[in-house]
């Protein structure tokens, strides 16, 4: 069986009915930068890049879709971050974990925090404005 060689992450995409709101969230919380976006004509896109990491493509949601706006998690249809350790999420790693967590609290973002049993990795889970799951893990050992 052939396996993809030199595979790497190209980008992550998120669909939203308000791509400007979502872009502002990712720029404010994680430091994404807006980059040139192609013109797809029939729908709007905003492309973001996280310097040194990966791009994110925000795509205008099809208004005819029947799916809910955000997945929240694989186990619950409510915005409860405690479901995210097993639910669908994207994980970022930061070196300033404590001040990052405080900034989320200052913004009133509901979170769920835990540490792995070995205590070396701390995690915080929360949602973006569209209900997509996010995790941030500590880079440094406590």
TrEMBL record:
PROSITE patterns tied to this protein: VOC (PS51819)
Matching InterPro entries: Glyas_Bleomycin-R_OHBP_Dase, Glyas_Fos-R_dOase_dom, VOC_core
SUPFAM superfamilies: Glyoxalase/Bleomycin resistance protein/Dihydroxybiphenyl dioxygenase (SSF54593)
Domain of life: Eukaryota
Residue intervals of the VOC domain: 8-139
PANTHER family with a match to the protein in the record: GLYOXALASE FAMILY PROTEIN, EXPRESSED (PTHR47802:SF1)
Name of this chain's protein: VOC domain-containing protein
């Amino acid at each position: 069986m052939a396996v993809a060689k030199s595979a790497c992450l190209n980008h992550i995409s998120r669909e939203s009915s308000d791509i400007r709101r979502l872009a502002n969230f990712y720029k404010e919380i994680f430091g994404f930068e807006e980059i040139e976006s192609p013109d797809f004509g029939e729908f709007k896109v905003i492309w973001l890049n996280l310097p040194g990491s990966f791009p994110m493509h925000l795509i205008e949601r099809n208004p005819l879709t029947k799916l809910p706006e955000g997945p929240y998690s694989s186990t619950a249809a409510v915005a409860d971050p405690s479901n995210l350790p097993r639910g669908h999420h994207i994980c970022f790693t930061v070196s300033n974990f404590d001040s990052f967590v405080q900034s989320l609290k200052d913004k009133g973002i509901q979170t769920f925090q835990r540490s792995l049993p070995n205590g070396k990795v701390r995690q915080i889970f929360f949602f973006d404005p569209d209900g997509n799951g996010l995790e941030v893990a500590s880079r440094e050992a406590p």
